[in-house]
Amino acid sequence: MTGQSVEFAAPWGALLKGVTGLSTVILVGVPLIGMLTGPRGEIGWFLSMVVLPLAILVGAAFFSIRGYVLTAETLIVKRVGWTSCVNLADLRSAETHQNAMSWSIRTCGNGGLFCFAGRFWNRKLGSYRAFATDPKRSVVLRFEDHSVVVTPDNPEAFVARVRKLRSLGVT
């Protein structure tokens, strides 16, 4: 196996753009309404109508997915100022699956404010972890006891690279 790493972008799909856009309008609009119409000097109102929505917006931005770095041992998910890592040691297969996230239920995580990330469940995959920006570009990484979904800019090249690095056959 090679020690070289390769990087893939994480483009936003139409669904993520729409959800993030609508959520941003709401999370900026609520503070504007709160500042213009709320009682002056009431700290509870200010915290709930101004600070909280803006904190949610800024906090979620730090969890956005900027790209993926693939090495022989690890998938590194690039975030804003930090990374999430997935150990590939027990990887069984990698495949593109455009509809992998369809009909998913979010069990814990972010459902569309800057990314789709966290734990999800659907009938096809069961329980899985997602680091996604465009579900139509889904790549399913299957491990013995769990699955991970990522959405690189070029799913086919990503799968080919994973298979080459991990010496996986076609599945």
SS content category? alpha+beta
Order of helices and strands: EHHEEEEEEEEEH
The description of the largest β-sheet is: 6 strands, mixed
The oligomeric state of the chains shown is single chain
Q: Runs with pLDDT <50, length 5+?
A: none
Number of domains: 2
Q: What is the C-alpha radius of gyration, as a whole number of Å?
A: 19 Å
Q: Could you give the topology of this structure?
A:
Elements: E1 6-9, H1 14-37, H2 43-61, E2 67-70, E3 74-78, E4 83-87, E5 91-96, E6 105-111, E7 116-122, E8 126-132, E9 139-143, E10 147-150, H3 155-166
Parallel strand pairs: 8-10
Antiparallel strand pairs: 1-2, 2-3, 3-4, 5-9, 6-7, 7-8, 9-10
Helix pairs in contact: 1-2
Can you tell me about this structure?
Helices cover 32% and strands 32% of the residues. It has 171 residues and is an alpha+beta fold. The protein folds into two domains: 17-61; 67-166, no CATH class. The strands form two sheets. It has a six-stranded mixed beta sheet with strand order 5-9-10-8-7-6, with helices on one face. The chain is elongated. The two termini are 19 Å apart.
Concise summary:
This protein is α+β, with helices and mostly antiparallel strands and 171 residues long.
Features:
single chain; 171 residues; alpha+beta; 2 domains; six-stranded mixed sheet; 10 strands
